[in-house]
Amino acid sequence: MTMPAHGASREEVFSQLEAFKQHDVKWREGRAFTLAYNAGTEVTSIAEEAYRRFSTENGLNTHAFPSLQRIQSEVVSIVAGWFEGGSDAAGFITSGGTESLLLAVKAARERGRSERGITSPNVVMPTSAHAAFEKGCYYFGVESRRVPVGSDWRADVAAMEAAIDDNTVLLVGSAPQYPQGVVDPIAAIAALAEARDINCHVDACMGGVTLTYLARLGHYVPAWNFSVPGVTSISVDLHKYGYSAKGCGVLVHRNKQLRAYQTYITDNWLGGVYGSSGVLGTKSGGPWAAAWAVLHHLGDEGYMELTAAARRACEELTAAIQATPGLVLRAQPESTLLAFGAENPDVLDVYAVADRLWQLGWYVDRQGPPASLHCTVNAIHDGKIPHFVADLRAAVADAMKASATGEQGAYGTVD
Ligand SMILES: *Cc1c(COP(=O)(O)O)cnc(C)c1O
Known about the structure:
Layout: H1 10-20, H2 41-54, H3 66-82, E1 90-94, H4 97-116, E2 122-126, H5 131-140, E3 143-147, H6 157-163, E4 168-174, H7 186-196, E5 199-203, H8 207-216, E6 233-237, E7 249-253, H9 256-260, E8 264-266, E9 274-276, H10 286-322, E10 327-329, E11 337-342, H11 350-359, E12 365-367, E13 372-376, H12 385-402
Parallel strand pairs: 2-3, 2-4, 4-5, 5-6
Antiparallel strand pairs: 1-7, 6-7, 8-9, 10-11, 11-13, 12-13
Helix pairs in contact: 2-10, 3-10, 4-5, 8-10, 11-12
């Protein structure tokens, strides 16, 4: 493709762009069990409209855009309330989970260097902690110490303790962890951090909204937020179960002193003082405004209903998988994520099941080890589970018959 010499009309560009989407997963119809979240057409259109109105406003400098300063501070304060952060809690909007986790690693490294003179820092975390921590360690020159999870897929706290040394700057727990959907023993991990006065980040990118509202709905939720002593920072993605537009996460620290290690400021160039809260420079106001709009449109009541719907669908899917011969559930989901594999991997290749499901229009994540399929169940799936389960069972039968080998696939792609 080369640059067109003559401009095309509005109608032409939009009709082409819409045509590009033809083979995309139909997330609006509930066909995606990953990557996209849907609270219905009204919520989506409110997010899109707010995004449109603020897409050119720039969060790099909130002095020029007091609107964005206000939006950020209100969004962060709502989220800090979910996290039971006290009046000292302070944070920033990020572009999503990956940026939040990169900054959690960076803040821990800075704190270790500044308060304890650590020059070879390490992070101790379970093998279930998100890949973005690995990316953060790689970017910022921090050693990643991965500790195998226990047989229940939760962080093995004794093994984590054994991996800690004087250069450890950060411990990580997830609420829930992505691969099997269980909540790590946050209180025990945070106690290890508190005893050593080091950072403890809780990755609630997935669970920050869901666990908050599941608890209010009366479900049992193990302690995971700032009510736990020793937790120093928590992340949540509003572009996941916040049901807002892509490009919005929030990273909250227990207090402003801890937050200070996240930010960066320099005047070592010819352009004057340059400060930034995160990885990016220019930041579209679109995702911030969309999040503000969706939070205010839904309110607590809206999130209670959406959380109840997602949980109902998740429980229905869990029961159906357990009742399907040939499949094993990896763990009882504690929020709305679940994973399952083959009872006997010699006779059933779950990646072939995923291939077949995709032919039928359903997109699930493939992961491992062990080879598993993963479903992120959200509100749009309420009422859609019987159809999915029928197709899943057909896909299992097909895969067993063919003993076909599917591609391994990937959670994220690089092309
Ligand atoms: C999605 C996710 C992330 C990464 O978030 P992105 O928004 O995809 O960058 C981190 N941690 C957990 C537990 C997640 O589910």
